């Protein structure tokens, strides 16, 4: 699993890091909060690099991309992704966003419909009450110590500057603390096919993902017996359910090729 291309592009005032695997139709991979492209998508890349051109991106303050001293927003991340794809001469693409990355790809579809072909929205949300009970209360109290250890280790391996880890945590936490419910119109205006994926033991309630599925006109729904992301990556204990990931990938391929 070696990237065909990797490097930095200067966009919107920061250097953004990206990697490209395989060839075929472009599928852009957008990681979740506190994470990086390979942490979230390593299992997916290993299974799909023979079928698509996979473009993994580290978002602002994450992985190997530069840091900004402005608040993180899903809209800003969408602007950065669009600018990076333009710099890479990618016209139209599929997008797969996990967790906060799922929120981000919905904003890509809203703000840049001309570059969006299909969406995979994995473990995302659009209203505060869609998260499991107590999520936002715990976010209000969150400290760097409460950040999952595998995410801290991953960040410091890519970027051994502790002050940058603190900045990442601070920006991610503030984005969650200040999150305001999206209008239903954000979802109902998505005019490309979308596949929504969630786990029955996810951090967003399955019924919330059903609500999102009802709002997006041309959408499919897949709720799996899984925790947050364990249907596409190792869980935080390091356990990988290969059969579950294979199932997810086969459904994604069917959706993208249909």
From TrEMBL:
Q: Extract the PANTHER family matched here.
A: VALACYCLOVIR HYDROLASE
Record-linked InterPro entries: AB_hydrolase_1, AB_hydrolase_fold
Q: Which organism is it from?
A: Chryseobacterium shigense
Pfam families referenced in this protein's UniProt entry, alphabetically: Abhydrolase_1 (PF00561)
Gene Ontology MF terms in the entry:
serine hydrolase activity
The organism's place on the tree of life at top rank: Bacteria
User: Domain AB hydrolase-1: where?
Assistant: 25-124
Listed name of the protein: Pimeloyl-ACP methyl ester carboxylesterase
